[in-house]
Amino acid sequence: MNWLTNLIRPKIRSIVGPKDVPDNLWQKCPSCEGMLFHRDLAENMNVCTHCGHHLKMSVTDRLNLLFDGAYKRIEVPSVPQDPLKFKDKKKYVDRLKDAQAKTGEKDAIIVAEGEIGGMPAVVAAFNFDFMGGSMGAAVGEGIVRAAETAVSKNAALIAIPASGGARMQEGMVSLIQLPRTVIAVRMVKDAGLPYIVLLTDPTTGGVSASFAMLGDIHMAEPGCLIGFAGKRVIEETIREQLPAGFQTAEYLRDHGMVDMVVARKDLKETIGRILNLLMNRTGSLNQKGNGSGIGAGKAGSAKSGLFAGKTAFAPHATVNQLTPANDPVDAAPTPIGVSKRAAKK
Ligand SMILES: [Zn+2]
User: Fold this and answer.
1) pTM here?
2) DSSP assignment, residue 6?
3) 8 Å CB contact between 192 and 155
């Protein structure tokens, strides 16, 4: 340190006084480098107003965005902290304490129940701010509890991963969460309830190697990173250049791993519509007359249509039938596997 920083700067500070303007009024878009005013950014759901880049969103903002109104937090059972007494540069217990102080949460997952599009739903959302959303025993416990709640309440399960993968400080205990979460989402499927995964930035490592890639429907936010190992690691291993856009939501959609890429502003409406298509037993979607989806259009057709009766879940609804249609849809359900536009011709 020199005399400029040690002596002059404190003196100037003492004359000028403490700053009364916070530092974080402006944020730089990581994609286009445009400057974003914090209020504009919040109003636009953390999407860049210049280029549409989807910046990270806090987990509570996300829950507020998705649920119809109030939602109820579900307590995640507590787990033994630091089972391996792990220490690297810092003790794992200290890292946990820091993350808990920073986020005000016990661990990297939040489970909540409420309604989306009028349908009962349990959401298990990752908190990336908590140790990179890494999956240890507590997160595994959260997924299990979310699945159990969905089954007991006859609700859909919606997982929203945002994670760097397994929590290395928990070693084997962390890896055990892979089969545990797979079994948990299996319970939801066995109960005939929809399991939807909303992949957000980033979904990597052990999370993408377990429950996050087992959804009945995979949605992803535009441009988000989805993969197992990092791009550089793969390139060094196979000694080949990977194509542009590798491991992005759009690339995975084009190659069949993701069903749809949905802009943040359309997320709530899209999930609500899908839940109505998969779970609606009374045809209320049709009565609302919003003119999209199977059996929509003419009044009453949904009551005798594809989702009438006790069927809780229609896994044969294709993605074409679930994506927003630009043109009004005919009342007659389209044959399975045929897109609406193709069927009209
Ligand atoms: Zn931008």
Assistant:
1) 0.77
2) I
3) no
| Beta carbons within 8 Å of 311's beta carbon, 6+ residues apart | 281
Q: Are residues 196 and 152 in the same domain?
A: yes
- Quote the domain boundaries for residue 269: 59-275
C-alpha 324/C-alpha 286 separation (Å) is 15
Structural domains in the chain (count) = 3
Q: Which residue has the higher pLDDT, 76 or 302?
A: 76
Tell me whether residue 2 is in a domain: no
Q: φ, ψ for residue 336 (rounded to 5)?
A: -60, 135
| 261 Cα: distance to centroid of ligand 1 (angstroms) | 18
Name the residue with tokens 């709530």: 268
Q: How far is the CA of 336 from the centre of ligand 1 (A)?
A: 39
Mean of the pLDDT values across residues 162-172?
96
28 pLDDT higher than 60: yes
Taking the centre of ligand 1 as the mean of its atom positions, its distance from the CA of residue 247, in whole angstroms, is 20
**What's the token pair of residue 244?**
């542009």
Helix axes 264-279, 59-66, angle to 10 degrees: 50
User: What's the gap in Å between 69 CA and the centre of ligand 1?
Assistant: 30
| Tokens coding 44 | 């636009």
The span from the CA of 127 to the CA of 93, in Å, is: 18
Indicate whether 241 and 322 sit together in one domain.
Answer: no
Cα(163) to centroid(ligand 1), Å: 23
- Kindly report, residue by residue over 222-253, the tens digit of the pLDDT: 999 999 999 999 999 999 999 999 999 999 99
Per-residue tokens: 2: 């020199």
| Shared-domain flag, residues 170 and 131 | yes
- Specify whether 114 is located in the same domain as 182: yes
The amino acid sitting at 16 is V
For residue 34, pLDDT beyond 90: yes
Q: Which residue has the tokens 């791993």?
A: 257
Tokens of 298: 């003419």
Q: What is the pLDDT of residue 10?
A: 74
Burial grade of 100 (CB within 10 A; 0-12, 13-18, 19 or more)? middle
